[in-house]
Specification:
alpha/beta; binds uridine-5'-diphosphate-xylopyranose; single chain; six-stranded parallel beta sheet; about 425 residues; 16 strands
Amino acid sequence: MRISIIGSGYVGLIIGACLAKLGNKVILIDLDEKKIDAINSGVSTLYEEGLDELLSRTHVEASSDYQKIMNSKIVFLCVGTHSDKDNSISLEYLIQATEQVSRVLRDKKDYYVVTIKSTVAPGTTEGRIIPILQRWGRKVGKDFGVCMSPEFLREGKAVYDFMHPDRVVIGEYDSKSGDVLYSLFQNFNAPILRTNLRTAEMVKLASNAFLANKVSFINEIGNICKRLGIDTHEVAKGMGFDNRIGGKYLEAGIGFGGSCLPKDLKMLIAKAKQIGYEPKILEEVSNLNEKQALKPVELLKKYVSIKNATIGILGLAFKPGTDDVRGSRAIEIVEVLLGEGATIKAYDPLAMENFRKLYPYIKYVSKEEVLNCDAILIITEWEEFNGLDYTGKIVIDGRRIIKAEEARIYERVC
Ligand code: UDX
């Protein structure tokens, strides 16, 4: 099938490369010429497990020319949606991309399906996207179809997650639209839920809100356990044997970051308030997560006067296995430490260059140099941190690096 994908970021590039691997003819449309050149030379612009190999073995064309989508059967919209100041969603890029698609396809003779993959609030596809697609007199349901099919890709594991989905959700304007998308995913070994557009939009937001809720839940339990001298990890292990709870997503620590969970949770909260509902549980999930980020600094103050101290940070990425620092807990922590007069030396195996763009004035050093600081904060649980010698050090662990327990002073956030 001939497919075009608008947006070649964390979602678009992965989906494009995987669909190409499955035998589809894929064209990626982006505005970033550097990204386009990299993709056309078979190199990925992102750090994703298996992506380099995938791109070196499959042909994915990239271009900035929207005319190239003319003979696509499906057009995926995968552009970023980010939080506005009031935490509602900014549709700026999605609207721009939709307007371009609408303009280019106004003369397309054969039937095609526009599919939204970007995360949007319930009602967006019907209320904002379809009107733009009909702007040039084309009629949805007659001239073209519309679907909303959310992605559930974890950064760092996105290729695996695309190829091995737990489920495929197809929100469809009508069954003709859904049939086209279904033909693309029917051979996946996963249940396919065919539903309406706004239900599909909500499945995505509710799924991420639930994941955020599970993290804040175990962190609430962890904060209680810490006061009781109980190992939260052991409690989580005991809980996880219950198949209604499950063992995943019960790692207590400094909370969730990334470009999705915080944003999607806030988007759902904003949508609920917009329709006059107070989402108290969701708000508390977010509030607890905000407070959890700074617990390492509170603990650090028990042992070190921060002003003029040199603090080492192990881990800058928002989680291990990625170079992405968007929503990293290290951001709030570095802000507070700098504000209180500390000198910071930081190490991360992948994310230092991305973090340096945000904080060019802190020192980026080897992990050995971090260990020579007055105190060490562990922010990201990279496995290699279990290979360091913490003897005689002061360590505040925001995640759970067992080897660090040998430190002279060791405290875990929870
Ligand atoms: C998430 C969802 O998992 C994915 O399905 C969705 O499509 C996009 O958002 P991602 O943002 O890549 O994926 O990160 P994820 O692996 O889910 O972790 C999110 C954050 O939660 C990280 O900061 C991680 O450190 C934290 N986390 C996760 C915990 O603190 N404890 C846990 O048990 C799990």
